[in-house]
């Protein structure tokens, strides 16, 4: 505490005290802001920092490891968000079981895995584990919704992995507010993050989402954690996409594919077959195959179109799995510049297998599928189409054409329509026959539309 001193307490002389700045005290405008404290750990040269503490350990689920950048890093906090019923708990129960099995195989380095559930009872989780085959002696369940109780379990078990399902159901007695509120969610996440960093314990948090699909709770929640994953999927489809939103330890644009089955959830290493309808006969009118890129993964997707009726006063425009605004733009370009009359007919466009396409590279496939449906002329077999369409009918270049065509060639496609000026290497041209177009009309004429 600062006070006035006129006489030196040591030599007892008057007027000898001189003002001097205190060591480690930062002042702004004459006011004390902060004083130096004892560092928790001494600063070290960057070359002396050990790398083992930041190396990822595989989870045993290949598609999850792809999105995480190799696996879980010790001390990392992962937030997995998704709509109810998407399969978040099923996926994490599978991850916990595989981590427990790997821990049991390590022998001397064996440590359990703790699955803390605040939404279900331990019996309900056990029933799901029985159905999916995720029962293991090293996997421990704790039906707790109080943070202090979860920390007590951590002290007793010393696990190698903690799964909390979900962070919105956990509350702390030290903080005011109801469970799921902004204050409680922030406090619980801060406490669990501090525990993860101090103990080198990877923590996976399940998060709820709002109506618009964003993570529920305060926005700072996404800044507190190291990794944010979004689990997406239509409840009427078995396809699930795990999308990386934020990742401090790896790529933030990677996508993993899963299929939800009655006996659990499994990774799909080659998901292109899920996004295409199988046709045993000749090509059907109104279909076009494109190659979309999700993260760094090229996926073949089938776009279907149906043009029905004529002289309808108020025709419908129905879209499923595509960007409705881009479909409306493509239809306008078709009618204005390609002489495809659609003003009095109903137009339905959709993707196959529950895939959602938002990138403009699918514009050309949408246009050719609609033109094929209108004129009842199927596109040639073994053809993929990639390209963005502008308002004047030009076909614009898109990214990753070589990677897209390599995937198409691997799956047996022999022809491709791409934007003019695409930088194609010799290997790509040798693997697949490429037609480069600069406008929509020449592309339609070349394909007999």
From TrEMBL:
Q: Which organism is it from?
A: Pseudonocardia eucalypti
What name does this protein carry?
DNA repair protein RadA
Task: Identify the residue span(s) of motif RadA KNRFG motif.
Answer: 246-250
The record's comment about this protein's domains reads:
The middle region has homology to RecA with ATPase motifs including the RadA KNRFG motif, while the C-terminus is homologous to Lon protease.
The protein's job, in short, is:
DNA-dependent ATPase involved in processing of recombination intermediates, plays a role in repairing DNA breaks. Stimulates the branch migration of RecA-mediated strand transfer reactions, allowing the 3' invading strand to extend heteroduplex DNA faster. Binds ssDNA in the presence of ADP but not other nucleotides, has ATPase activity that is stimulated by ssDNA and various branched DNA structures, but inhibited by SSB. Does not have RecA's homology-searching function.
Q: Which HAMAP family match?
A: RadA_bact (MF_01498)
Give UniProt keywords alphabetically: ATP-binding, DNA damage, DNA repair, DNA-binding, Hydrolase, Metal-binding, Nucleotide-binding, Stress response, Zinc, Zinc-finger
Query: What are the binding positions for ATP in this chain?
Result: 82-89
Write down the Gene3D superfamilies for this protein, in alphabetical order. 3.30.230.10, P-loop containing nucleotide triphosphate hydrolases
Xref: PROSITE patterns: RECA_2
Keyword field contains Secreted? no
> Which family does this protein fall into?
Belongs to the RecA family. RadA subfamily.
């Amino acid at each position: 505490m600062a006070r006035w001193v006129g006489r030196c307490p040591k030599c007892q002389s008057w007027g000898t005290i001189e003002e001097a700045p205190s060591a480690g005290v930062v002042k702004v405008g004459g006011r004390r802001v902060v004083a130096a404290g004892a560092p928790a750990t001494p600063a070290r040269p960057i070359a002396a920092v050990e790398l083992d503490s930041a190396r990822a350990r595989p989870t045993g689920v290949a598609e999850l490891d792809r999105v995480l950048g190799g696996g879980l890093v010790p001390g990392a906090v992962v937030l997995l968000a998704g709509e109810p019923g998407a399969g978040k708990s099923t996926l994490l129960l599978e991850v916990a079981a595989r981590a427990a099995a790997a821990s049991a195989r390590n022998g001397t380095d064996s440590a359990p895995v703790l699955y803390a559930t605040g939404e279900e009872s331990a019996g309900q989780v056990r029933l799901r584990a029985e159905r999916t085959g995720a029962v293991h002696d090293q996997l421990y369940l704790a039906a707790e919704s109080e943070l202090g109780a979860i920390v007590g379990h951590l002290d007793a078990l010393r696990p190698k992995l903690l799964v909390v399902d979900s962070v919105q159901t956990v509350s702390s007695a030290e903080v005011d507010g109801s469970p799921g509120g902004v204050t409680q969610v922030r406090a619980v996440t801060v406490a669990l993050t501090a525990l993860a960093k101090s103990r080198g314990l990877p923590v996976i948090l399940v998060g709820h989402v709002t109506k618009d699909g964003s993570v529920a709770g305060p926005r700072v929640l996404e800044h507190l954690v190291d990794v944010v994953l979004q689990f997406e999927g239509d409840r009427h489809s078995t396809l699930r996409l795990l999308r990386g939103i934020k990742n401090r330890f790896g790529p933030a644009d990677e996508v993993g594919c899963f299929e939800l089955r009655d006996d659990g959830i499994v990774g799909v290493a080659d998901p292109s077959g899920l996004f295409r309808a199988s046709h045993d006969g000749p090509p059907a009118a109104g279909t076009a195959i494109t190659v979309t890129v999700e993260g760094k993964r090229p996926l073949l997707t089938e776009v279907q179109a149906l043009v029905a009726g004529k002289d309808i006063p108020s025709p419908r425009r129905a879209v499923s799995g595509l960007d409705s605004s881009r479909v409306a733009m493509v239809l306008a370009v078709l009618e204005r510049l390609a002489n495809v009359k659609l003003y009095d007919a109903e137009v339905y466009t959709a993707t196959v297998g529950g895939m959602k396409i938002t990138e403009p590279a699918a514009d050309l496939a949408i246009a050719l599928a609609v033109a094929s449906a209108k004129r009842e002329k199927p596109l040639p077999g073994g053809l993929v189409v990639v390209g963005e369409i502008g308002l004047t009918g030009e076909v614009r270049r898109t990214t990753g054409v070589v990677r897209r065509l390599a995937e198409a060639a691997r799956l047996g496609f022999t022809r491709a329509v791409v934007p003019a000026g695409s930088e194609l290497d010799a290997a790509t041209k040798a693997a697949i026959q490429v037609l480069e177009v600069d406008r929509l009309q020449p592309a339609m004429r070349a394909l007999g539309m």
